[in-house]
Amino acid sequence: MEMKITSIETARLLRKHRFNEPTTSYYDVDGILRTIGEGEATCWNSPAHDKSIRHKVYAAPTLALAQKWLREKKHYDVLVDRDYLFGKVGKYFAKIIRLKDGAISEAMHCRSYEKALEHGIKKALRTM
Fold it and tell me: According to the model, what pLDDT value does residue 54 have?
């Protein structure tokens, strides 16, 4: 299975909420996804107060890493499920569970697992 990278919008939201884990991909100043080559250092988000050109570079984690970070650091669990109606398989959707109090919300229905997970991560980040 291919590891999907977060969109630039999600990468910006993650940085806003202090995501600072090492990644092998990043979005450059022009919003283009770049991958770090073998032997190079990993990408980290620079602090928000940093006014250099590096401030506009966003670490681009995989969806799985972003999901794990949300669960471990921010105490939000994003789970993807699928609709079943009258024995037929439906679309994917994400459940966002705030682990502090058990509050549950749902993200929009999508045709793929990855899109549902991305929408769930975005919704969790926006509700913080």
Answer: 53
